[in-house]
Specification:
The chain is built from 15 helices and 4 strands. It has 387 residues and is mainly alpha-helical. A hairpin with a 2-residue loop joins strand 1 and strand 2.
């Protein structure tokens, strides 16, 4: 507090010596922390927008790229890689909304609340709030000096962003493995082994995955500090800052490096497509074929299950079966089933809203770019208001 007053005196002269009039350290530090976090949140919001824009660029490039979709980490149904990138876009879009909403809730002014009870000086807290770019003054002086909800909320939002970065990192680590070979790492973002000359280790996503634990720990830390405090200021609240500073620093680092990492990876398109062609990813479409012809889905499910079992026993794919084979599993199968279960058709036919059809993915991308443009305009307008 004395350092701030000293620096302010250097900048504006003797008027700064009245900084503490009608104020306490309690309301001053709460105000400083909100101002600092407001600026940090603004920077982070820009990084989340940049990350989401990166996903949109990848989706534009890969919206027709066939790949296997997974549930339980088992081969499930064919999807497009662009659809996969857009799933991550949606996650970070919700994170962006939470980030902006948390900043709005934090943007209220404790200054003038004093130590806990307000002041006898005839101050205008609304004018002060306007000058500092706050939405308004905190309504209760006791709450104003003790509230650290905005710190806890930010830590939660940051933790969820890091969880999403960690999940993305886990996928990229798997995809870069010899077993998947879906992506190839750029040498700038990987390291070798000190012993094994053939290694190319995915250090960046591994480090991001590790950093997530640190940020989650900071969230736990502030919640534990707050859980037993009586209302009004307590010295325990000094513990609100170290974890917050650490979270902001590491979150910015992780967002910045993940953007560059995603831009650098090379997609092994043939390997993705080959994986999508195997594993009976078109089995659901074969069952849907029967269901659309009036067969109860459970019955259709059992018939296609028998077909899959037959293929496994004979080293075949569903696409290898003859019409006679299909008829042996259910009389409603006709010759057009082989066309219907082609993997590319399985992808194209998923035209429901939010589906993986390239047509739908392209629509999602166009809509998302418009959303990004609007967000950039709004966030810059808010920045001007705060300034």
């Amino acid at each position: 507090h004395m350092a701030i007053e000293k620096r302010l005196t250097e900048l504006i002269g003797d008027a700064a010596r009245k900084l503490h009039t009608a104020r306490s350290r309690n309301d001053q530090v709460a105000t400083d922390l909100r101002l600092w976090l407001r600026e940090e949140t603004h920077q982070l919001a820009h990084l989340v927008i940049e990350l989401r824009s990166t996903f949109l660029k990848l989706a534009e490039r890969d919206f027709k790229q066939l790949m296997p979709g997974y549930t339980h980490l088992q081969l499930a149904q064919p999807i497009s890689l662009g659809h996969h990138w857009m799933a991550h876009y949606e996650r970070f879009s919700r994170d962006y909304e939470r980030l902006i909403q948390s900043r709005q809730r934090a943007n209220f002014n404790p200054l003038g609340a004093g130590a806990l009870a307000g002041t006898t000086y005839p101050i205008d807290r609304f004018r002060t709030s306007q000058l500092l770019g706050f939405n308004g003054p905190c309504k209760n002086s006791l709450d104003a000096v003790s509230d650290r909800d905005f710190v806890a909320e930010f830590q939660f939002v940051a933790s969820l962003i890091m969880v999403h970065l960690s999940q993305l990192s886990e996928e990229l680590i798997l995809w870069s493995s010899e077993e998947f070979k879906f992506i190839e790492l750029n040498d700038r973002f990987a390291t070798g082994s000190s012993m094994m000359p053939q290694k190319k280790n995915p250090d960046i996503p591994e480090l991001v995955r590790g950093k997530s634990a640190r940020v989650l720990g900071n969230l736990q830390g502030i919640l534990v500090v707050l859980k037993a405090l009586p209302i009004a200021y307590n010295k325990d609240l000094q513990e609100d800052k170290e974890g917050l500073f650490d979270t902001c620093k590491n979150l910015k680092l992780c967002l910045e490096i993940m953007i560059r990492f995603l831009e650098s990876i090379k997609i092994n398109a043939d390997k993705m497509q080959d994986s999508a062609q195997s594993g009976f990813l078109n089995a659901t479409d074969a069952a849907d074929y029967l269901a659309k012809r009036g067969v109860a889905f459970r019955e259709a499910y059992q018939a296609v299950g028998q077909a899959v079992r037959h293929c496994l026993q004979n080293g075949k794919l569903l696409s290898d079966l003859t019409l006679a084979d299909w008829k042996s599993f259910h009389a409603e199968f006709e010759d057009d089933v082989r066309e219907k279960i082609k993997i590319t058709n399985c992808l194209q036919e998923r035209l429901s809203f939010g589906g993986t059809s390239p047509t739908r993915v392209r629509e999602q991308i166009v809509e998302a770019w418009a959303q990004i443009k609007q967000e950039v305009q709004l966030i810059e307008m808010e920045r001007t208001d705060f300034s």
